[in-house]
Every structure is written in structure tokens, then in C-alpha cells.
Q: What sequence folds into this?
């Protein structure tokens, strides 16, 4: 009759080694999957039709090499690094002609998340972060020029936490503060009547805006939000002056506020994650921002929305 015996140290060592190899294999597999997703995202970006659509004035993307510089001025970004600069990857302009989003003060730095939206990098804003382009005087690199009434804006984001009411995902504002009337913004500005409804906002004091009817942003859900703006030179805007899209190439039904044909944005500050008001900081991930200096045609904005949906 055989006697039961304990495992020897050698046998235990072999078991531990095997477990270690298996764990390492799983870890390496996870890294490999993330690397494949990252390479795919970069390939989708470089081969997309977006680059051939004219009049791109800002393209901030999170998966391309060299998109960021951390707080130590290093471009070899690591997970959870605090950011100093987010660089424009617009292929239609030379390096010196592109705006760079920069952190203005300590304590407002967003972070780089390597495993962000759909497993590819994104920028995390904690409800107190902002990264902006704020020129001195007239700067031709500014995304939207003074008096601009025709433009298109797109953003990929995931809200997290208190996203309702007055939150800004991206904004170009005409004055030094949020109180300025003329803005171009994608976000959730508003009051209790449209809390959490995504949309486009063009006027603060009179709440002239276009929010999606019967749609409320959910936490931890990925979205592509776009607005195609074609305001008249003078007079009141019509019901087709602003088109808003959410996760679809089909125009969304809107709750429209006021008339704002006389509103034209000007270049005081362009920001991602907030504007200049501490009450309007976004909480969550932002993966990509694209701005065009004109109202895109149907086939063009469909191409942009399809491209952005492909990275989600």
C-alpha cells in the first residue's frame, strides 16, 4: 500500500514556476492585445478619409506617436503621466502653423491613460483639469477665426461622474471668461431642463443652444458627438443651421433654443476639458477632437463620424 507524501521543495518550485509562466503569459497576452489595438488605431487614423477633407484647423488625437509631452517635457509618455502639451496632428499644416494645447497652471493637468476608450489611449480629466490654446494677440493658428459662423466640431469622449448640467467637453470662447456671449462648444451646458443632454452651445447669456431631445449621457459609455454649424451672416438662424450627431451619421432630433444668427465666435481661448469657469469642468476621458473651419457636406461629416466610430 502506497503512503501519501508531501510535495518536495523541488516539486513545489516546479509548480510555482509553472504558475508564474502562466500568469506571465496572460499578462503578456493582455499587453499584446493592447499593442494590436494601438497599432490598429494608428493605422485607422493615417489611412482615414478625414485627412483629405479640406479645412481641418485642429486635430488632437491620443494614439499617434508624439501626440503628447508630459509635465517633464518628455514625449515618451507612460500610463498615468500628467500632461503638459497635446499636439495637433493635422497633416494639412506645417509644424509651425498648428495650435498646441497647453496646461496653464499646476493642479489642472489631465492625465494620459494608456488603456482608455476601447483599450486605446485617451486623456483623463478629473473634474478640475483643462488644456488650452490661448494666443497672444491675433494668431493664425487659432482653430476658429474671429467672426466665424461656419464650422464643424467633433469629439470622442466617455463621461464619468457628475457630468450633468454645466459641463464643457471642448470650447472656443470669444472673451476672457465664460460670460462672453459668443462661444462654440460641445458639452452639457444648460439648466435642469436639459441636464445631461449633449449638444452644441453658441450663446451663454440667452442660453441659445441645440440639445439632443430625449437623450441623456450615461456614465462609462463611449460617445462620438459632432456639430455642423452653418449660421447665416445676418438675421436669425433656421432649424437647419446647426446639425448635431451622437454615435450616428443620422442627424439627431433637437430641442432648439432662441435665435442666434448674429452670434459669431472669436479667438480668445480654445480649450478641451472645460473653458474658464471652475463650474464647468468635464470629468472623464477624451480621445479625439477634430475641428473644421467650415460646415462639412453630408458625405464629409458622415466620413468623420464613421472614422471616429471605428476607434471606439
A:
Amino acid at each position: 500500500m502506497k503512503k501519501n507524501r508531501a510535495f518536495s521543495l523541488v516539486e513545489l518550485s516546479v509548480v510555482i514556476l509553472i504558475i508564474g509562466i502562466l500568469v506571465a503569459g496572460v499578462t503578456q497576452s493582455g499587453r499584446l492585445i493592447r499593442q494590436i489595438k494601438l497599432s490598429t488605431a494608428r493605422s485607422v487614423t493615417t489611412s482615414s478619409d478625414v485627412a483629405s477633407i479640406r479645412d481641418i484647423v485642429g486635430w488632437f488625437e491620443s494614439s499617434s506617436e508624439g501626440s503628447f509631452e508630459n509635465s517633464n517635457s518628455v514625449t515618451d509618455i507612460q500610463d498615468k503621466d500628467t500632461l503638459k502639451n497635446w499636439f495637433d496632428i493635422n497633416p494639412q499644416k506645417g509644424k509651425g502653423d498648428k495650435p498646441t494645447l497647453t496646461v496653464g497652471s499646476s493642479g489642472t493637468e489631465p492625465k494620459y491613460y494608456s488603456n482608455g476608450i476601447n483599450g486605446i489611449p485617451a486623456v483623463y480629466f478629473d473634474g478640475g483639469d483643462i488644456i488650452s490654446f490661448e494666443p497672444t494677440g491675433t494668431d493664425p493658428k487659432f482653430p476658429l477665426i474671429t467672426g466665424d459662423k461656419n464650422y464643424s466640431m467633433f469629439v470622442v469622449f466617455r463621461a464619468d461622474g457628475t457630468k450633468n448640467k454645466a459641463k464643457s467637453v471642448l470650447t472656443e470662447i470669444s472673451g476672457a471668461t465664460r460670460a462672453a456671449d459668443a462661444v462654440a462648444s460641445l458639452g452639457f451646458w444648460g439648466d435642469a431642463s436639459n441636464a445631461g443632454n449633449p449638444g452644441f452651445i453658441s450663446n451663454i447669456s440667452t442660453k441659445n443652444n441645440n440639445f439632443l431631445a430625449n437623450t441623456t449621457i450615461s456614465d462609462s459609455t463611449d460617445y462620438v458627438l459632432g456639430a455642423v454649424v452653418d449660421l447665416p451672416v445676418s438675421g436669425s438662424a433656421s432649424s437647419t443651421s446647426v446639425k448635431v450627431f451622437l454615435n450616428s451619421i443620422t442627424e439627431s432630433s433637437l430641442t432648439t433654443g432662441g435665435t442666434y444668427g448674429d452670434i459669431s465666435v472669436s479667438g480668445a481661448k480654445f480649450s478641451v476639458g472645460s473653458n474658464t469657469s471652475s463650474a464647468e469642468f468635464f470629468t472623464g476621458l477624451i480621445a479625439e477632437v477634430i475641428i473644421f473651419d467650415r460646415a462639412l457636406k453630408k458625405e464629409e461629416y458622415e466620413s468623420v463620424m464613421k472614422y471616429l466610430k471605428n476607434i471606439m
Q: What stands out?
A: Residues 258-262 have pLDDT under 50 and may be disordered. The chain has two helices and 17 strands. The longest helix spans residues 9-47.
